[in-house]
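Reopening this ticket.

The earlier resolution said the output was attached, but the attachment link was broken on my side. Pasting everything inline this time so it's all in one place.
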Amino acid sequence: MASGRCGDAALLRKLGQRHGVRVRVAPLLGDGRQRISSSRIRSALEQGRLEEASRLMPHPYRLQGRVVAGRGLGRELGWPTANLQVNGRKFLPREGVYGCWVRVGDEGPFAAVMNLGPQPTVDPAAPSAVEVHLLDRTMTLNGLELEVEPVCFLRSQQAFQDLDHLSAQIGKDAQQARQVLLSQIAG
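Inline output:
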């Protein structure tokens, strides 16, 4: 048995024949520049290049999570968020702030802004989180499963001097996300 990336199509056929499994070898896919691979897709996501990752996959990158109770700080700031519990095995893109589409069951997509990562202004020691704020919409989401499709990377994580500055930046992030997402609809 081969391991450690050893072997080739001929070995797969031989092993398949031995175990009564039909093996069909598909050609490598490329995009004109280089072959399409999971490593290349992960690299694009790690760098926040969502358009590239989506172009390399048969569908846009998405993540799912159940809405769990948070501390309520987003609501106090005027930016209520749905805190998502995401499967720990899910490969997540670069930490930062994103414009995204959110689906709630059969409803949506709804325009949203997502924070992925720690909360350096609020609690720098807290673990990384996935928080979504629906733009121009109020819904009760606790306990529901959300599907999130990040569309554009807006900015990296950063610490602000206080909650007022954080809230002002969230407002700018929301406006930028709104513009990008609306241009997708119009385009």
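Reporter confirms the inline version is readable. The chain has a mean pLDDT of 84. The longest helix spans residues 163-186.
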